[in-house]
Each structure stands twice: as C-alpha cells, then as structure tokens.
Specification:
327 residues, alpha+beta, Uridine Diphospho-n-acetylenolpyruvylglucosamine Reductase, domain 2, Uridine Diphospho-n-acetylenolpyruvylglucosamine Reductase, domain 3, Uridine Diphospho-n-acetylenolpyruvylglucosamine Reductase, domain 1, 3 domains, 4-stranded mixed sheet, globular
C-alpha cells in the first residue's frame, strides 16, 4: 500500500507539478474553517487539468471530489481520501457589442460583479456579496434580492464524464437553490455565457455597495460561516395539499415573501438562536446562521443541524433542507 501511494504521488507530481498538494488541510480553505486533510489536492487552472485529474482518479480507482471556493462546504473532520480538485479556471471574455460575458466556472462571483458594474453591464449586481465561484453559483442556482444566477445565463460548457459539450439554460433544470448538477454529480461546469444589458455604472456600483453593507451586518467578514445554512421554504412546493394547509395555519402569513418563507423565521420559532454543539453555534441575531465560534468540528455541525431539523419538523411538519454540501 505504501509503495502504491508513493507511485501515485510521483505520477501526480509529474502531471500537475506545483498544482498538487499532498494532505492539504481543508480547514484552511473552507469558510467554516473546518475539515481534515485532502489526500491529493489539485488546483485545476484549465480544462486539461480537470480532464487529467478525473482520468487519473478513475485509473487509480480513487474517489474524486470537485469544489469551488469551499464557501458552502462542510468538510469531514477525518479528512477526505482520494482526489479533491479545486476548480480554478478564471478565464474572462466580455464582448462589448453583444454584451455577452464568457467566464470560467472557477471565477469568484464578487470580482466578476465588480468588473461588470464598472463596464455598465447589468444582470448580477444584486448578487454582490454571495460567496463562492460562478460554477458554484450555477450549481446551487444562487440568488439574492430578486436576482438569480440563471436569469441572464445563456448556456454553459460542461464535461459530462465522457465528453465536453454545451448545455442550454433549460437543460440545467434550475429550481429554487437547485439544478441538474445536484443530481448529475459527475457533470462538471467548465465555463458559462451570460447575456447582460446596458446600465449606468454608478447606479450598478451603488446597488452592489448597498447590498454588501446589508450582508455585512448579517455576515461579518471575519465570521466563519457558509452564509445561510438552510434553504428557504417554497410554499407552492409543499406537498400534499393537506400538509401545506396545516403548515400555513401555523405560520405568520405576512412573513411570506415572493412565495417563500424564510427558514430563519421557522428556526427562530423553535428557539434556534444561540443553540450550540461544541464550538458550532447559531447566531443570537439570526436563526439560519450557523458559524464556527472557535475550534468547531463537522460532527458538531451535523449534530446541531439535525437537532434544528427535528425541532422544525415537530412543530411545523416539514423538513428543512441544507444549502451547504457535506464533503
């Protein structure tokens, strides 16, 4: 076994050189500051890196995991065996005539928004402050303040496990904080095309700046958290009708906004604020903000999350669903 590991290391170094790190602590890159070491950590800067990493993992029967900026990841305390690849493709092309932006899926969302705002291109300005990459935002159909990543998306380029091919927006099967990529785990988003529209740069910058100020009150920059932990509730998605009726009879209908009810409201009704498990805690001021108060562990995140889900289930009859991904 030891010889096999040495051989694998030599092969990885030959293929990826400085792009591979052995036993890389995931706690150093996750916004929660949690996680053991990734056995083989590869930073993929181009399409070839991604295809080579996948091919290598298959040839050596190694588990393979893809992450973006790790802003929405709860990494296992015991570490992760196999290949963990960080999507770092950050190509960017903006056609000022067509207003189409083609961007690598590893590009961080906020710097992209700043660039688009400066050039007077509208379509993403309200998503300023959402952590993560373009690919991660597409994967989870991220959005904020009435704007979602899918709204101006035209098409994407993916690797489906066999070949690189295009995918239309409709083929992505977007839903509230979900997409086809949550079912097709082996599909990898490589790049995306967005159709934007002209707008006043000053107005776009102000919109993003104001939103970021609001987000900073809720998610201070130094807070170790993944953003909202649970998805909000889409009222029309509650089934069967009897459950929906029962649920609505238990909540304040004025809290429903654009057909959704904030999971933070439900959590606050069951006393989530201030709840703790080890160093993992729920904020005193927001029921859907779970953070690492010190030396938190993934086991405590799961323990606290499961406790909160049981409380909401008992009181309201529905099960909350995590926005975060467990690695």
């Amino acid at each position: 076994m030891e010889t096999d590991t040495k051989t694998i290391r030599k092969e990885l170094q030959k293929i990826f050189e400085k792009k591979v790190i052995f036993n890389h602590p995931l706690s150093e890159i996750t916004t929660l500051g949690i996680g053991g070491s990734a056995q083989y950590f590869i930073s993929a800067h181009n399409e070839g890196d991604i295809l080579n990493a996948i091919r290598f993992a298959k040839e050596h029967s190694l588990p393979f995991y893809l992450i973006g900026s790790a802003s929405n990841i709860v990494a296992n305390d015991k570490g992760v065996r196999g290949v963990v690849m960080q999507h770092s493709i950050t190509t960017l092309e903006i056609n000022n005539e067509t207003k189409i932006c083609r961007v690598g899926a590893g590009y961080s969302l906020l710097p992209l928004i700043h660039i688009l705002n400066k050039q007077g291109l509208s379509g993403m300005e309200k998503m300023a402050g959402i952590p993560g990459t373009v690919g991660g935002a597409i994967y989870g159909c991220a959005g904020a303040y009435g704007q979602e990543i899918k709204d101006c998306l035209i098409k994407i380029k993916i690797f489906d496990g066999k070949k690189v091919r295009p995918l239309t927006r409709d083929q992505c099967k977007f839903g509230y904080r979900t997409s086809i990529f949550k079912q097709r785990k082996n599909w990898i988003i490589l790049e995306a095309d967005f159709q934007l529209i002209n707008a006043d740069p000053k107005s776009l910058k102000k919109t993003s700046r104001d939103i970021m100020k609001l987000r900073a009150k809720k998610y201070p920059p130094d807070l170790k958290c993944p953003g909202s932990f649970f998805k909000n509730i889409v009222i029309d998605a509650i089934r069967p009708a009897a459950l929906k009726k029962q649920f609505l009879s238990k909540v304040d209908l004025q809290k429903i906004n654009h057909g959704k009810l904030a999971s933070g409201y439900l959590l606050e009704q069951v006393g989530a604020k201030g709840q703790k498990s080890g160093d993992i805690a729920v904020a005193e001021y927001h029921g859907n903000l779970i953070y690492n108060a010190g030396n938190g562990k993934s086991k405590d995140v799961k323990k606290l999350a499961n406790l909160l889900k049981k409380k909401v289930q008992k009181k309201f009859g529905i099960t909350l669903e995590e926005e975060v991904q467990y690695l």
